[in-house]
């Protein structure tokens, strides 16, 4: 019988681990398992990466960056067991392997790795991408038709799937952990919605426009707790259907209207307030000034706009020079994260005055970890509803996003702006404590919360 050392020298796993550690320039804290049963790497590793077949390697060779790894994982050619967060948090794995293009290696090193892949029988034709990948898109980028197509691709995975992921609140944006980690996800989403209402200064009888209303949670909360008349717009058919049902179940159908409508087609202003929560990432850089100018026209003088959006922490890169990435192909087609400076400039050009800006970066990391727990806790049901490929997409996306927020690679901002009134008036109290204080703050009502959950 051959010793384990001799067996390992003839096996796939040690050779593969050697290649990836060469790319990373450091030992990797992962265990590698291959199709031939071989294993390499520390036994104490928190994560095991299994290459189930040689096709996983071909996917990486044809797309030698995060997209190739993502394709292999989504297709099930590559499996990850153990602590996924430990893998994503390690800078050598993510920064030097997943984001490094093998074509940037020196020719000697590249030739050596190519020889390894030849010996492993990994060379071959380009594998077809998983069916879940969106490669071709119809129409001009951010045209109404194309936006409707890509938004449907993301949000029409299924309402029941999102219910598992998001919990009863059905709020698909970061919570506000006002109560700290002792609070629940439902507490955090209630408190985030209430924070938005307070920043907007909502009062009974006001008209609120909720742009990108999702499943109606913001409109329902504002109508029930602040007595407003709300209009919510979405271009997702499945969201619209469920949002209308939730509005009726919450008993606010006389005050809330949900429309299947593009934000560019809303013309029935003026509104007293506009909330845009996690929607403007779909607008795009080229359309952002037009988007904010349109929102400004819909506001009455001294009306307020709150725009909450995930943001880049670096200047905008030229998209033509960026390699294709996992998020664009599988999660948020055509999504664009703008830096805060870009948003602020557009606010000013729209004739609005910025009154407040708050980063919720740490809040989003915590929210995403709760969504990951929800998905893992309902894994069998999630895969039955959406398919194992979609479930893997979402697990990888949510976990990687949590780490990105926690490490400061991306952030999320709430920007509050006002349309100036006569002589430049804002209609706002003179101190932040006054307009964000306890006056009008809706404390969590267990009875109302139960009704809301039933409506969800």
From TrEMBL:
Keyword check for Ribonucleoprotein: no
Protein name: Cyclopropane-fatty-acyl-phospholipid synthase
Family to which this protein belongs: Belongs to the CFA/CMAS family.
Entry GO MF terms: methyltransferase activity
Entry-linked InterPro entries: CFA/CMAS (IPR050723), CMAS (IPR003333), MeTfrase_dom (IPR020803), SAM-dependent_MTases_sf (IPR029063)
CDD domains in the cross-refs: AdoMet_MTases
Location of the Polyketide synthase-like methyltransferase domain: 161-420
A Pfam match: CMAS
Keywords attached to this entry: Lipid metabolism, Methyltransferase, S-adenosyl-L-methionine, Transferase
One of the GO BP terms on file: methylation
Methyltransferase found in the keyword field: yes
UniProt cross-references to Gene3D superfamilies, sorted A to Z: Vaccinia Virus protein VP39
């Amino acid at each position: 019988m051959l010793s384990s050392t001799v067996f390992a020298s003839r096996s796939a796993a040690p050779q593969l681990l050697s290649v990836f550690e060469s790319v990373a320039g450091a030992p990797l804290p992962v265990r590698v398992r291959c199709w031939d049963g071989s294993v390499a790497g520390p036994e104490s590793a928190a994560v095991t990466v299994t290459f189930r077949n040689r096709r996983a390697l071909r996917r990486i060779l044809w797309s030698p960056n995060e997209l190739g790894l993502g394709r292999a994982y989504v297709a099930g050619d590559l499996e990850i067991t153990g602590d996924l967060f430990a893998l994503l948090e390690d800078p050598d794995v993510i920064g030097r392997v997943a984001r490094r293009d093998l074509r940037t290696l020196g020719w000697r090193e590249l030739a050596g790795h190519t020889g390894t892949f030849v010996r492993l029988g990994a060379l071959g034709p380009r594998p077809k991408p998983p069916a879940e990948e969106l490669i071709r898109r119809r129409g001009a980028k951010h045209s109404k038709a194309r936006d409707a197509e890509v938004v449907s691709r993301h949000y029409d995975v299924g309402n029941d799937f999102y219910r598992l992921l998001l919990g009863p609140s059905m709020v698909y944006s970061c919570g506000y952990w006002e109560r700290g980690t002792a609070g629940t996800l439902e507490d955090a989403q209630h408190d985030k919605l209430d924070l938005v209402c307070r920043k907007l200064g909502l009062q009974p009888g006001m008209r609120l426009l909720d742009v990108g209303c999702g499943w109606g949670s913001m409109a329902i909360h504002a109508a029930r707790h602040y007595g407003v008349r709300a209009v919510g717009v979405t271009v997702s058919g499945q969201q619209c259907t469920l949002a209308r049902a939730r509005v009726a179940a919450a008993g606010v159908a006389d005050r809330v209207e949900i429309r299947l409508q593009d934000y560019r087609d809303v013309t029935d202003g003026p509104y007293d307030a506009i909330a845009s929560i996690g929607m403007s990432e779909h607008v795009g850089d080229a359309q952002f000034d037009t988007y904010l100018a349109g929102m400004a026209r819909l506001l009455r003088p001294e009306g307020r706009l709150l725009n909450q959006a995930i943001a880049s922490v670096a200047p905008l890169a030229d998209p033509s020079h960026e390699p294709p990435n996992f998020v664009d192909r599988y999660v948020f087609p055509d999504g664009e994260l703008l830096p805060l400076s870009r948003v602020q400039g557009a606010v000013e050009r729209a004739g609005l005055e910025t009154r407040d800006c708050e980063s919720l970066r740490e809040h989003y990391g915590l929210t995403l970890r709760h969504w990951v727990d929800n998905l893992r806790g309902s894994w069998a049901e999630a895969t039955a509803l959406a398919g194992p490929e979609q479930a893997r997409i979402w697990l990888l996306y949510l976990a990687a996003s949590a780490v990105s927020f926690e490490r400061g690679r991306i952030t999320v901002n709430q920007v509050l702006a006002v349309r100036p009134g006569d002589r430049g008036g804002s209609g706002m109290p003179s101190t932040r404590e006054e307009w964000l204080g306890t006056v009008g703050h809706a404390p969590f009502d267990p009875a109302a919360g139960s009704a809301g959950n039933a409506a969800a």
